[in-house]
Design goal:
alpha+beta; Glutaredoxin; Glutathione S-transferase Yfyf (Class Pi), Chain A, domain 2; 8 helices
Length: 223
């Protein structure tokens, strides 16, 4: 049986969980707070980052969300999320990197730092300027999502793919932390509602990070 080490607001763990849900892979959740820097976690992943997946019976440890997702794409035939031609797969991988790197850097990471880590770890108040900058960046990224959806049904093409999983995971954490304003991004909002409505996504919306309450519309399917 697989075990997934993660914490509720880790966007990369959320990406993996959406993929596992789509593919019907069972697993147990174990809470891991990387900022505690446990030696046991360091032994599993020297980078001290979530997610990490472990199958103790087989002695398998998987690290890095993209590596984990592609492992299950290769080993579980159900619900392919990286199909199509080589150029189409390259486009999906490009968008995964866009959301995992650029959206995370511009939006999710500063929101997590200001509204989660400062509260839980540093016992400090958030920086209003940093929050405004992250929210402004979120608008630009949602504009890009709108642009993509002007030309295709899903972010990466005609079918749902890893690109949608990566984007929805980042956006869901940003929304939980109050960093998303959907006004003016109707296409992005409609796509996100489709993602939130999927059985693979719904369990994420019921989880809470201690001491941090999401906005009222966080679980709503009619944004």
């Amino acid at each position: 049986m697989w075990t997934l080490l993660q914490f509720p607001l880790c966007p990369f763990s959320r990406k993996v969980r959406i993929v596992l849900g789509e593919k019907g892979v069972g697993y147990d959740l174990v809470r891991e707070s990387p900022w505690l820097q446990r030696d046991e976690f360091f032994d599993l992943n020297p980078a001290r980052e979530t997610p990490v997946m472990v199958d103790e019976e087989r002695g398998v440890v998987l690290v890095d969300s993209t590596a984990i997702c592609e492992f299950f794409e290769e080993t579980v035939s159900k619900a392919s999320l990286l199909g199509g031609t080589a150029p189409e797969r390259a486009e999906v991988r490009r968008l995964v990197t866009w959301f995992d790197a650029h959206f995370y850097r511009d939006v999710t990471a500063p929101l997590l730092h200001e509204r989660m880590l400062k509260r839980i770890v540093h016992k400090q108040a958030p920086d209003a300027g940093a929050l405004r900058a992250a929210m402004k960046a979120a608008v630009s990224h949602l504009d890009y999502v709108d642009y993509l959806l002007d030309h295709r049904t899903w972010l990466g093409g005609a079918t749902m793919s890893f690109a949608d999983c990566a984007a929805a995971a980042q956006i869901s954490v940003a929304e939980y932390l109050g960093g998303i304003d959907w006004k003016g991004n109707e296409q992005a909002k409609g796509w996100y509602v489709r993602m939130k409505s999927r059985p693979s996504f719904r369990p994420l919306l019921s989880e809470r990070m201690e001491g941090i309450v999401p906005p009222a519309q966080y679980e709503a399917l009619d944004l």
